[in-house]
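Read as amino acids, tokens; as here:

___
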Amino acid sequence: MEGRPAGHFVIADKEHSVIDLQNVVKAFDSVKAVDGVSFAAKPGEIFGLIGPNGAGKTTTIRMIMNILAPDSGSIMLDGKMLTESDKARIGYLPEERGLYKKMKVGDMLAFLAEIKGADKAKSSARADEWLKRFDIYEWKGRKIEELSKGMAQKVQFIGTVAHDPDIMLFDEPFSGLDPVSQDLLLDALLELKRAGKTVLFSTHIMDHAERICERIFLMNHGKEVASGSLAEVKARFGSDAARIEYDGDASFVASLPYVSATREFPRWMEVELKGEDAADRLYRDLAGRLRMRRFELLEPSLHSIFIRLVGGDTAEAGQREALHV
């Protein structure tokens, strides 16, 4: 990774917001895709814009990129309105991928860096480094159309970061990747953070957000549902939980008076609890009816909070997702 040019923001200034949205609104016909959204992403952090499909995440990112204009509210970059010249500082991976199928991988990456005004030799070296890291360097001379969906996704990611931008926006970056490639990408995002980059990514996969995000903004139907650091969100919206592995019939657990929800899998389950002594009561009740192989207390998961806050609210999902919001 190359050093940051003089004049860019100072990473140590944690009060400074790189991306700042205030009361942003965007409507399409009768649907408010984004409805009064406010958040700020700080230097050198990974910020998660999370929510179900159709929540307004893509529209929000497109407005940050100035592809769409907000109907009202403000979007600032380093305290100023975004200009076309600022876009060279931004790496953007859209939800709807776009690569020229007849171009060779190396030529495609060189082109993407060139339109951002990057130094050709430096961007080429960075692209080669990422190609090797993602184990697709030998495909550099092959055409995009010869790649698998997952390989093309990796190339698109490399094209997003090869010009060494300060700010990176990834819209559903894990789409189309197998679990191994997803882990590679998660590690790559953490490396970008360590290099001082500001990373904002959208996802509806809570496990990914929980693994790498410092702060999150959960939205649904265009509005804020919860926001803050993971610890703050868990303290406010989470509940105590237990994971049990067992042999036997555990169907009775969901009906226990101190159990608020369960996630059941073959031979194990996660149980959300309510009440100060709920964990002790659960352990006693299980011991008499199941053969337990494991009983572990857990902190609230982002997945369970997501399900509680937006899981049952799907009435408008199809309409909003059709609008690609």
